[in-house]
Amino acid sequence: TIEQHPHRQLRLVWGTVKDKDQGKVLPLLPKNAEYYFCEAKMPRALPASELQQQAIAFGLTGRIVPDVNQALSTALADAAPDDLVVVGGSTFVVAELEGL
After folding, report:
1. Measured between alpha carbons, how far is residue 78 from residues 34, 39, 41, 73, 89 in Å?
2. How far is it, in rounded angstroms, from Cα 80 to Cα 18?
3. Closest CA to 94 of 61, 78, 71, 62
4. CA 65/CA 52 separation, integer angstroms
5. What is the DSSP letter of 17?
6. Distances from the Cα of 84 to the Cαs of 18, 31, 44, in angstroms?
7. Is 100 exposed, middle or buried (0-12, 13-18, 19+ CB in 10 A)?
8. pLDDT, tens digit, for every residue of 53-67?
9. Where residue 2 falls among pLDDT bands split at 50, 70, 90?
10. Which candidate in 8, 28, 48, 77 could, as Cys together with 82 as Cys, close a disulfide (CB 3.0–4.6 Å)?
């Protein structure tokens, strides 16, 4: 679906939970995206630093911005007008977004 939306650079704000098998999810994600690894404020959240390390093993690159809202703000600040910013990974990450 993302490929159906014209964009120059894809920027993914991405966080997930510890009990999901990242080895099944991370290989499905686009390697040409810029990632902003974050974590929801909950005990089940996978720390952003651990997520980044696991993602690197699958050729995914980006920076750690643990706070979900700060990660989105950073992605938006980095984005050009023709970039696409997507937030996902876990519903818990999306649920923390403020002011949208």
Report:
1. 10, 19, 24, 9, 20
2. 32
3. 71
4. 10
5. B
6. 27, 15, 28
7. exposed
8. 999 999 999 999 999
9. confident
10. 8
* Percent residues over pLDDT 70 in the chain: 98
Residue 13 pairs in a beta bridge with: 36, 87
Of 80, 7, 10, 67, whose CA–CA distance to 38 is shortest?
67
Separation between Cα atoms, residue 79 and residue 8, nearest integer Å: 10
- Which residues are within 8 A (CB) of 21 and not within 5 positions of it... i.e. 6 or more apart? none
Q: How many CA atoms lie within 13 A of 21 on its CB side?
A: 4
* End-to-end CA separation in angstroms for the chain: 22
Name the 3-class secondary structure at 75: helix
